[in-house]
Amino acid sequence: MTLLSVEGLAVSLGGRAVLQDVSLTVDKGEVVGLIGPNGAGKTTLMRAILGILPHHGRSSLAQLPPRARGRAAAWMPQSREIAWPVSVETLVALGRTPHLSPGQRASAEDRAAVDRALARMGLTAFRQRIVTALSGGEQARVLMARALAQDAPLLMADEPIAGLDPAHQISTMRTFSALAAEGQAVIVSLHDLGLGVRHCTRLIVLDQGRIVADGAPASVLTPTLLRDTFGISAWFEVTPQGPVFQPLEVLE
Ligand SMILES: Nc1ncnc2c1ncn2[C@@H]1O[C@H](COP(=O)(O)OP(=O)(O)OP(=O)(O)O)[C@@H](O)[C@H]1O
């Protein structure tokens, strides 16, 4: 079942074409890693897909009215700034907003979704802590939990594992796999190609605003693509412990 369909998406910023002719579909069960060098257009693509950036072309999500969009897709932006000194639980509960009418109180179902999200991000013991008094990585996990509490079929997350310790990076990627196994889908932008190879079912590579590869991780990360798009060489092997990818050198 298709959860997202994008056709001919294009974005210009400051008079410059930042995204050009992007078409893709995402089905339930997929963990799609969006990769590419700095400035390739990953954030721009996700924001255009969500309809929070003016664009040309068609995104099935951007066409929805705001409340329906909030139930169809959850969004964790790259920015980690949290302005209000509220409890972790209060902030995560904001993820339920698209499910509530104005003034409606949270139901048992809403509270269960918040509990599940806190548990998934290892935050149950943090629920009464004040968010602004947490470390950067802890705050990132709270924002991830807020997106998870939204319980939307599609989760879009912009560099959600940046700044997390290795254990939480792996467990967050495993959470994405678990969501996909439950019938949701995830689009996640990443710079860690090793984690992308191990945990994504599919990688989409953006370079200068265009998709240059889209497919199974092992078929996408060829030496030629790594050289031409990322300017690196890498070691890549399928081992009994799963695929292992390690960037080696910057190529001249
Ligand atoms: N408001 C803006 N005006 C002009 N150019 C912009 C604006 N916002 C972003 N850009 C440019 O658009 C391009 C794509 O930016 P984007 O943030 O989508 O890249 P990214 O792939 O997410 O990068 P990173 O990996 O560094 O987060 C960049 O070259 C950036 O400089």
Automatic annotation (TrEMBL):
Presence of the UniProt keyword Translocase in the record: yes
Occurrences of domain ABC transporter (ranges): 4-233
CDD domains per the UniProt record, alphabetical: ABC_Metallic_Cations
SUPFAM superfamilies: P-loop containing nucleoside triphosphate hydrolases
Record's keyword annotation contains Ion transport: no
Gene3D superfamilies xref list: P-loop containing nucleotide triphosphate hydrolases
Keyword annotations from UniProtKB, A to Z: ATP-binding, Nucleotide-binding, Translocase, Transport
Entry function: Part of the ABC transporter complex HmuTUV involved in hemin import. Responsible for energy coupling to the transport system.
PANTHER family linked: HEMIN IMPORT ATP-BINDING PROTEIN HMUV
Protein name in UniProt: ABC transporter
Species in which this protein is naturally found: Celeribacter baekdonensis B30
